[in-house]
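Hi there,

I know you've been waiting on this one. I reran it after we fixed the sequence typo, so this is the corrected version. Both the input and the resulting structure follow.
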Amino acid sequence: MPLTVSAPGKLVVAGEWAILDVGNPGIIASINKRVFAEFGEAERIEVNIEDFGLNGLHADFDGKDLKWERDLSEKEQKDTLFMKASIETALRYLEGKFKPFSIKTWGEDTNIVVDGQLKKVGFGSSAASVVAVIGGILKLNGKNIASRKGKDITYKLATIAHFFAQGKVGSAFDVAASTYGGVFVYKRFDPKWLERQMASGASVKDIAEQDWPAFEVEQLKIPGDFRLLIGWTKESASTTNLVKQLGEWAKASSANDQNRIRIYGSIALIVHDIVKAWKNNDKKKVTALLNRNEDYLSELTRVSGIGIETQELKLLHEAAKAVGAAGKLSGAGGGDCGIGVCFDEKTAEAIKSAWEGKGLRLIDATVDKDGLR
């Protein structure tokens, strides 16, 4: 009987960019666009990645690294990057004691055709695939992945795999969204601490089983009338490139870095206030503060000269605000998705109409209360 494990995608509700600094909170939502991993019995490790058309790749684990049976092309190496890191990290955690398996992964449709070109929407499918693969390997080998402790271990292993595979960038909020589900307050792990731990020669098992400095996940209760709408700008964006560009801008002068610190600090304070208003069920204040969050993202765009709040994302924000809702970019910006937030169906319909009138595309997705399952 095959085992199927799945993990949802992500969106940022509030706190993007500032969340990169250790200690700053963000509000994250898991989205019901899932990546699936199906496991079966096998004599050796076999990998099939449907989204990339990769089938029947065989490999062996030598205690540290996954060794492919044959040499992979440059494209195959790129397409298997996260899969390889996920399997290696999970098997290191299991200290090499595991049942061989076949694995097949695929994702729910997060690509849209625009003018004959396939474009990614931006729901964090690489993080979801890492969480699903690692969670599945743990489950296959008798580990509990449903408890909070089990999810914490899965998150930490998936963060190790994802963070290092993509060149030590990102806050891993997407990994958290794929693991925990629902809407939650997130504070990132300390990346310098993690790098030191990995460089120290400590085992993956020891690193995953200890408390991680600064890392926090606190679930928020989702009001029954909460409406999260997702609008797509019709342009895909690279988070990695935007993060690198902003990093280079900040390093270029102390004035730039002071601007970055000031704006990040202002966004972090807004997130603290949103969390307080959310817990007090003050929906009017949540709406106003989300729009204020976007004002600071717009300022970050202006002072840095980097295309974070694009013209389409600005239109999305203004259209939602005009009907009494909140509208903002979600994530790094530069394209991809923006969100509308309100607390009644009439306003939700008004957002949809306003966005359609501006040529924005509504995405059929919403909050997923389950994380890894």
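Quick highlight: The CA atoms of residues 53 and 356 lie 34 Å apart.

Best,
R. S.
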